[in-house]
Amino acid sequence: MNIMDKKILASIEIRQGDITQIEVDVIVNAANSSLLGGGGVDGAIHRAAGPELLTECRSIGGCHTGEARITRGYKLPARYVIHTVGPVYSGKPHDSQLLTRCYLNSLKLASDYNLASIAFPAISCGVYRYPINDACKIAIDTTCNFLKAGRSLKKVIFILFSSKNYKTYMDYLKSI
Ligand code: ADP
């Protein structure tokens, strides 16, 4: 591993916990295409941010799978929320392309806003049933490739709710 790769890996952090509590410039929401809220991490983010988040989301008018939109964070510790819509897992190759686009478009949007820190949940790995091993590789590989290009982001946190998913991410990061 060269010095640049080490620097990139040092800017990635894996944590176990609740994304609504994390103090970063922007947290990423695993939203659905209506952007009108739902269960899982989406519900938790809307509850913690308060009703103004839903009002702003309503004004956006939806988001296609693989795309991302940004709003303010309202009552969250995070200043902004990026809402991205992951694929419902089908087992087809297109799934990985769409999940890659979720990470890439979220990272690009954070950079466009000149943000330094971002936290991701395991997009699509709940109700949308994406296998955590495959999703973890996409999340970390896409992020490493993006960080190689430089730009504003200095810290990327992957925050996992379950200890099993946390271990999957830690094991993959150590294996790189
Ligand atoms: P999707 O519909 O994209 O699958 P889910 O919200 O069902 O989204 O699940 C995505 C992941 O987020 C799951 O691994 C779930 O355990 C996790 N999760 C749920 N609530 C939180 C939270 N408050 N903070 C971090 N991760 C969460």
Structure characterization notes:
The protein is α/β, with parallel strands linked by helices and 176 residues long. The chain has one domain: Leucine Aminopeptidase, subunit E, domain 1 (3-Layer(aba) Sandwich). Helices cover 44% and strands 18% of the residues. It is built from six helices and six strands. The chain has helices at 3-10, 40-49, 51-60, 94-112, 132-148, 163-175; strands at residues 12-16, 26-31, 68-72, 80-85, 117-120, 155-160. The chain has a six-stranded mixed sheet, with helices on both faces. Helix 4 packs across helix 5 and helix 5 (132-148) crosses helix 6 (163-175). The longest helix is centred in the middle third of the chain and has 19 residues, at 94-112. It starts with a helix and ends with a helix. Bound molecules: adenosine-5'-diphosphate. Adenosine-5'-diphosphate is lined by residues 18-20, 30, 40-42, 44, 86, 121-128, 159, 161-162, 165.
Oligomeric nature of the chains: single chain
Small-molecule components bound: adenosine-5'-diphosphate
Average of pLDDT = 97
CATH topology: Leucine Aminopeptidase, subunit E, domain 1
Keywords:
176 residues; alpha/beta; Leucine Aminopeptidase, subunit E, domain 1; globular; binds adenosine-5'-diphosphate
What's the layout of helices and strands?
Elements: H1 3-10, E1 12-16, E2 26-31, H2 40-49, H3 51-60, E3 68-72, E4 80-85, H4 94-112, E5 117-120, H5 132-148, E6 155-160, H6 163-175
Helix pairs in contact: 4-5, 5-6
Bound molecules: adenosine-5'-diphosphate.
Adenosine-5'-diphosphate binds next to helix 2.
